[in-house]
Amino acid sequence: MKKTLELRGISAGYNTGGRNRVVVRNVDLSVSEGELLVLAGPNGSGKTTLIKIAGGLLTPLEGKVKIDGKEPGRMKPKARAAYTAFLFQVRDSPWPFTVRETVAQGRFFRRGWFGAENREDREAVNAALEKAGLLPLAERPLTELSGGELQRVYIARCMAQEAAFLLLDEPENNLDPKYSFLIFSLLHDLVKEGRGAIVSLHDLRLASLFADRIALLSLDGSICALGTPEEVLTEEKLSRVYGLNPELVRGLVL
């Protein structure tokens, strides 16, 4: 039976100056294994916040998150890592680990930082390297990679973790169109193999090509529209959310 990640009645925000600043309001979302859900909307609409909440990294002010009936926020990190793998848009400058060493970091939660790598670990790492097209680069240091290659390494690390759900915050960030397409082709293949994914995304053309469903968020942190790309990416809905006239909106999705 497919696992499902559910967010019900979620309101969330951050405490600034002793006051709660709400950035997500009364959000209901779900994603199942085998489905790619895109979070779209302008900067400040709560996409990154929702991804953190979905994986139990941030506690909502209201509402519940459940994965396969369990609350990720109440799980120990090792147990939670079996369900969710993260990729955030803000990443440190790479250390000179090799590609293989970096992808193998996705296995740490299973064996600990100082545990010996076993055959299952090696097989998972090799499979992730192969699917991401990184076997020829396996022994190259991260510091010698292009931005697109580096992004594939980080996604391969998530793959090696073998979590049920991938939670990715703008994985196309700072990539040219070729690498953006390759990254989402890879994600599409992973989802069709049975992973679930929640991905925040600004490029609505990519969303229209690869998303099963899109949640379009408004600046007040509520969901303006939720459905298939055809249902959500309309001139009326996009012009309302982005504050553009319909003629300009057409350029976002063509």
Describe this structure in words.
The protein is α/β, with parallel strands linked by helices and 254 residues long. The chain has 2 domains: 1-83 and 164-254, 3-Layer(aba) Sandwich (Rossmann fold); 91-162, no CATH class. Helices cover 37% and strands 24% of the residues. The strands form 2 sheets. Strands 5-6-7-3-8-9 form a 6-stranded mixed beta sheet, sandwiched between helices. α10 crosses α11. The longest helix is centred in the last third of the chain and has 16 residues, at 177-192. It is globular and about 55 Å long.
Keywords:
single chain, 254 residues, alpha/beta, Rossmann fold, 11 helices
Entry summary:
By secondary structure, the chain is an alpha/beta fold.
Helix-strand category = alpha/beta
What percent of the residues sit in helical stretches (DSSP H or I)? 25-40%
CATH topology of the largest domain: Rossmann fold
CA gyration radius, whole angstroms: 18 Å
What is the strand and helix layout of this fold?
Layout: E1 4-16, E2 19-32, E3 36-40, H1 47-54, E4 62-67, H2 77-81, E5 84-87, H3 99-104, H4 108-111, H5 119-131, H6 147-161, E6 165-169, H7 177-192, E7 196-200, H8 204-210, E8 213-217, E9 223-227, H9 229-232, H10 235-242, H11 246-253
Parallel strand pairs: 3-7, 3-8, 5-6, 6-7
Antiparallel strand pairs: 1-2, 1-4, 8-9
Helix pairs in contact: 5-6, 6-7, 10-11
